[in-house]
Amino acid sequence: MARRRCIVKRRDLLTLAAGIATSALARPNVLRAQGTAGATTVLRFVPQSDLTLLDPVFNTALVTRNHGMMVYDQLYGLDSSYTAQPQLVEGHVIEDDGRSWRITLREGITFHDGTPILARDAIASIDRWTRADVLGQNIRAITTAMTAVSDRVFLVKLKQPFPLLATALAKPSSYCPVMPERLARNPPSVQVTEIVGSGPFRWVADERMSGSRAVYERFAAYKPRDEPVSFLAGGKVARVDRVEWHTIPDAATAGAALQRGEVDWWEQPTADLLPLLRRNRSLKVEVKDRAGLMGMIRLNHLQPPFDNPAIRRAFLPAINQTDYMTAVMGDDRSLWNDRCGFFLPGTSLATEAGLQAMAGAPDYDKVKRNLQAAGYKGEKVVLAVPTDLTALNAMSEIAGDMFRRVGINLDYQASDWGSVAGRVMNNRDSLDKGGWSAWCNYIPGIIALNPATQSYVRGPG
Question: What is the mean pLDDT of residues 160-184?
Fold first, then answer.
């Protein structure tokens, strides 16, 4: 299941340069706060959900990723052709038949606290990321040493050549943010709560209101690369002084706020409001992220009953991608694709092989027989459902109905997105200890281009 990301923004006067954060923050329009030449420029943004978790290594939720892209820089970034380009890095030299990378950092760049970015900061940041990310763990397994040669130069020594190191460090999701060594020393299982990066915006911690607002201010000392911006690469130039994230969980309220001019940009409008928003001449509705989002039902392979592969396979005849996409984005087929496998539709590795198992109308009776044959004995299944993320809530409604129709003993547990994300990403315990059985999720289509970055096909558990 794949959906394109449709955003709504106001047709105002000042354009924010592309590339200040993620593809979800590309070219919005804003007004000066008081309409005067000297006033502070403010972009008022409605994110997909409340920003609950602040550490993009500890938690890989998209809202946390987007926050991270505002405040942290990467060593490398992907350009518009999905090729890794230097960001904090000035350049690198590959030596010893591909087993040694000598990486040089740019000169004169600093963190938001005024301290210079040193080689030891980059090493500590990479080390922390490789403990958490699936691809990073593979890199860690072949790394013999990371050492600082000087304040700006460090070496990565490998057991074997790995030509995709820069590409791995340029990942746009579950990515490697560079932070001061003193913070990167935290294990990835412990959330970093002091947010100090080197990106074009700095985090304004004392203005954060959980469940309501997150604030960023332009980092005056930021030094963009002297290159044209290209997706997440090139010179990131902040054209506004301040960005405010306003959490508005109710879609009707968010749409009304946009139409009244109380906010400038709504990241994920709901399908039912798109016709109304398109009729408003002061608004612009467009698809900014053509790679979109890929939806899935994630089953917990560690706990019964989904530790049984036969039970997992038994559900395939009950899955109809069209039902899920219609629930999320309505009947406009230009906004979604219901022929989606593990890789992004339309790319070189995309295939429809195996999708025939989900073709046609759901056959619930067949699934019941499959479950019985596979040995399902009525074990409880906990479906973790976010109430404040419209798309995932809609997918969860369809999934919950499917589970009930095939006779699953379902416990439908609904809570806010922050609670769901923390639970499913960090709790591996049994159900009686707060564990979970299944949840609906989506990932950025851009990470589903190949097996290296598509972590779900790599089976990390």
Answer: 97
Domain that holds residue 167: 76-184
- Of the candidates 287, 390, 385, 298, which has an alpha carbon nearest to the alpha carbon of residue 336? 287
pTM for the full model? 0.84
Identify whether residues 17 and 93 lie together within a single domain. no
Torsions phi, psi of 332, nearest 5?
Answer: -75, 100
pLDDT in tens, 259-299: 999 999 999 999 999 999 999 999 999 888 888 999 999 99
CATH number of residue 263's parent domain: 3.40.190.10
Q: Does the residue 88 lie in any domain?
A: yes
Which pair of tokens denotes residue 137?
A: 């763990």
Same domain for 95 and 110, yes or no, is yes
* Integer CA distances (angstroms), 201 to 35, 38, 145, 220, 336, in order: 22, 20, 32, 9, 33
The reply to whether 311 and 416 lie within a common domain is: yes
- Closest by CA position to 439, among listed 405, 389, 377: 389
Angle at 218 between CA 216 and CA 223, to 5 degrees: 135
- Mean pLDDT taken over the chain: 91
- Asked if residue 65 is part of any domain, the answer here is no
Backbone angles phi, psi at 188, to 5 degrees: -65, -15
Q: What's the pLDDT score for residue 456?
A: 79
